[in-house]
Automatic annotation (TrEMBL):
Phylogenetic placement of the source organism: Bacteria, Pseudomonadati, Pseudomonadota, Betaproteobacteria, Rhodocyclales
Protein name, per record: diguanylate cyclase
Top EC class of this enzyme: transferase
A GO cellular component annotation in the UniProt record: plasma membrane
Domain of life of the source: Bacteria
Length: 723
């Protein structure tokens, strides 16, 4: 006689239900989505009230938002949320706290002086140190942080900061990552405290400074001062900016406050970006007159493409991009590789269980346990009464009903249920398995699992099945599976032991869902990111080639006259500032016109190339070799005294005398004449120095060629016959 309820058989079905619930949990308990944020002047979206307070002013919950800087349009969304009553609607009294420019403003949140803050991607570094920030929303899809330099010539380079003073504000790790990628380690330049004003650039106090591309450039644009912005995005470092964040403790202990503050803030940002003039009026009237109306308008206009309120919803963040940011930090040695980002990003739809519900669940669990003990008692009683025919019929009817119920779950659950025996042959196949893989139960029962697994994945599948049969537990895997029509799909699997009524392991219970589309989208996104990085690298390489072509003489490969005219004043100013000498060598090929006329222009071109190669061979790294025009070359020798400069000029003159043009009987010797002038002996300005060297060259030519002549100390005011 069978009892009315076989607890071992029912236990198997309970295990099956638990596994099904675990696989579907992210969908079943995601919760209802929050109401959409208000856009424009449309109807206000529904907002959750904070459970700790009411909307009455006397009972509003006070919270503090630590701003990243001082009051300006950068924080317009929060001002709009306060002015429009969005914070009050959800029971919050929000106070804004400005940054002082001396300390990292995010410290206020971690030290408990503010509940919420605005921070850069440096939050990821704090997360790695165990401080547990939680990013609630991203305001800038592209960080506005950049390096700014004066650039009167229009061909400046970020690498000119090497050895120079530089200002970089606190919490700007992405800029250090950018400089590292550009080959500028922190020790290669001198960090000085940030003054937060472009006057430090104009005065020459620093070579470069960190800025927001939406802010400080306005002042230089207004004063018509030429400048250059260098964005980390040009090196593939495209980070988020102005991230709204709190702490893990705040999320756990006051989830309703966090959700309400986030939703009201995002409503404010939508309103602010669509009503910019109104918010500019609000800032000037209530918060700060530090910036003019035109400055605030400039800031608002340049924020729009970085916030992207149209293409991307304000507040959106993508976990894969945060992982990419972590990978860049790891690549540059700023983070350990492979760090997990679990817990960094806020899940607005996550299900937070209230304390009362927890106690209720414990109560229900106790009731279930009591019911289970009661059922066990009935089970023992039924065994003693199993001989009675009437009870047997009732037991059989109860079991049939139970079997039908569990069979319904087995067939209708939105997952593929597949039972495998110990030899990996199919012993059970539900309707969703037929829907996903195409074969019906009759075609699969008794067949090996190899029929639906690609050969390359079969060893891994065998290993997982062996682990389940031997070690028990639930094993998760991802496989490439075959369908009846020959397609290859990607499936996620949960596998657990199948146990019979005697407690023996008789096979494996497998639950599967088709994840092909999700994996395809992930691969497409990764491919698009890689393609974008490749295109950026190609553009940078092309820009470098174009810049090189504009600064180089195509015949000789040395710098051209344009580069000299741009570089000479800068080198001369640096020599004046730092107090060292500059030697100016003006070189001319002797009888070059005769060479062209008698031997042809090809031989003349060869002469120019040979002289240029010889000059480069005798140059130091800091020396500048230029073709000034025709057969004339100029060599600038920074930090070189008169004796060394004359010795260098004589070496060049002697080496050129050993060069020959042509071959055989038509071979012709080559020679040059060189005029030498030095700062400060022969000129106090770069123009005076160039004139002195030119006169010295004329003297060398007049003295018989193939020689070196030093400028006279009175050559700044030459007279006819000085040479």
């Amino acid at each position: 006689m069978r009892p009315c309820f076989d607890w071992r058989r029912g236990g198997r079905w309970l295990a099956l239900l638990c596994a099904c619930g675990a696989l579907l949990a992210p969908h079943a308990f995601a919760g209802a989505p929050m109401a959409p944020a208000e856009k424009g002047s449309g109807a206000a979206a529904a907002t959750p009230m904070v459970s700790e307070s009411t909307s009455d002013a006397a009972t509003l919950t006070p919270v503090t938002l630590q701003l990243k800087w001082q009051h300006q349009f950068q924080f317009a969304g929060y001002y709009a949320a306060a002015a429009r009553g969005y914070y009050r609607d959800v029971g919050l009294d929000v106070r804004f706290q400005e940054a002082d420019g001396k300390h990292d403003p995010t410290d206020a949140v971690f030290e408990g002086r503010a509940e919420f803050g605005v921070g850069n991607s440096d939050l990821l570094l704090r997360f790695a140190r165990g401080q547990k920030p939680v990013v609630l929303a991203v305001i800038f899809q592209h960080s506005p942080l950049a390096m700014m330099m004066l650039d009167p010539s229009g061909v400046g380079s970020l690498h000119s900061i090497a050895g120079r003073p530089v200002m970089i504000e606190p919490a700007a790790a992405e800029l250090f990552a950018y400089l590292r990628r550009e080959g500028l380690a922190p020790g290669s330049f001198t960090l000085v405290p940030h003054g937060f004003h472009p006057d430090d650039l104009r005065s020459g106090k620093v070579e470069a400074m960190s800025v927001y591309s939406t802010d400080e450039p306005f002042l230089l644009t207004q004063s018509q001062t030429p400048f250059a912005l260098y964005s980390p995005r040009t090196s593939g470092i495209d980070f988020y900016g102005d991230n709204l964040f709190t702490t893990e403790q705040m999320v756990n202990e006051r989830p309703a406050v966090v959700a309400a503050f986030r939703q009201a803030s995002l409503r404010g940002w939508h309103y602010a970006m669509e009503h910019q003039e109104e918010i500019i009026d609000l800032i000037l009237q209530k918060y700060s007159q530090r910036k003019s109306r035109d400055h605030l308008r400039y800031e608002a206009a340049h924020m729009a493409p970085l916030v992207q309120p149209g293409p991307v919803d304000i507040g959106y963040t993508y976990p894969g991009r945060w992982q990419h940011i972590a990978d860049i930090y790891a690549e540059l040695g700023m983070l350990p590789p492979g760090i997990s980002l679990d817990g960094l990003l806020y899940e607005p739809d996550a299900w937070h269980i209230p304390r009362w519900m927890t106690w209720m669940m414990f109560g229900l669990l106790g009731a279930v346990l009591s019911a289970l003990l009661f059922s066990l008692q009935i089970f023992h009683n039924n065994r003693r009464l199993a001989t009675e025919a009437s009870l047997r019929r009732q037991i059989e009817a109860s079991l049939q009903l139970s079997e039908r119920r569990y069979r319904t779950i087995y067939e209708e659950a939105p997952l593929a249920f597949i039972l495998l025996d110990r030899g990996a042959h199919v012993a059970g196949w539900n309707s969703n398995a037929e829907r996903i893989f195409g074969w019906n139960a009759g075609e699969m029962l008794g067949r090996s699992i190899e029929r639906m697994v690609i050969p390359e994945d079969m060893p891994k599948v065998r290993e997982v099945l062996d682990q389940v049969l031997i070690g028990g537990g639930v094993r998760h895997s991802v496989n490439h599976n075959l369908t009846r029509d020959g397609r290859v799909i990607v499936c996620e699997w949960s596998n657990s032991q199948e146990i019979n009524a005697d407690g023996e392991v008789i096979g494996v219970l497998c639950l599967a869902q088709d994840a092909t589309e999700r994996f395809r989208m992930r691969e497409e996104l990764e491919g698009a990111n890689q393609s974008l990085r490749t295109q950026i690298a190609q553009i940078q390489a092309l820009q470098s080639q174009l810049l090189e072509q504009t600064l180089r003489d195509p015949l000789t490969g040395v710098f051209n006259r344009r580069y000299l005219e741009e570089t000479r004043p800068r080198e001369f100013a640096r020599a004046q500032r730092e107090g060292y000498a500059i030697a100016f060598l003006f070189l001319d090929i002797d009888r070059f016109k005769q060479i062209n006329d008698e031997l042809g222009h090809e031989v003349g071109d060869d002469a120019l190339r040979q002289v240029a190669a010889l000059l480069l061979a005798h140059a130091r790294t800091e020396d500048i070799v230029c073709r000034f025009g025709g057969d004339e070359f100029i060599v600038l020798l920074p930090n070189m005294a008169q004796a060394a400069a004359l010795a260098r000029a004589r070496q060049i003159c002697a080496a050129c005398a050993e060069l020959t043009l042509g071959s055989g009987e038509g071979a012709t010797a080559l020679s040059v004449s060189i005029g030498v002038a030095l700062y400060p002996e022969h000129g106090q300005t770069d123009a005076e120095l160039a004139r002195a060297a030119d006169l010295a060259l004329y003297a060398a030519k007049s003295g018989g060629r193939n020689r070196v002549a030093l400028a006279r100390t009175d050559s700044r005011t030459p007279t006819p016959g000085d040479a």
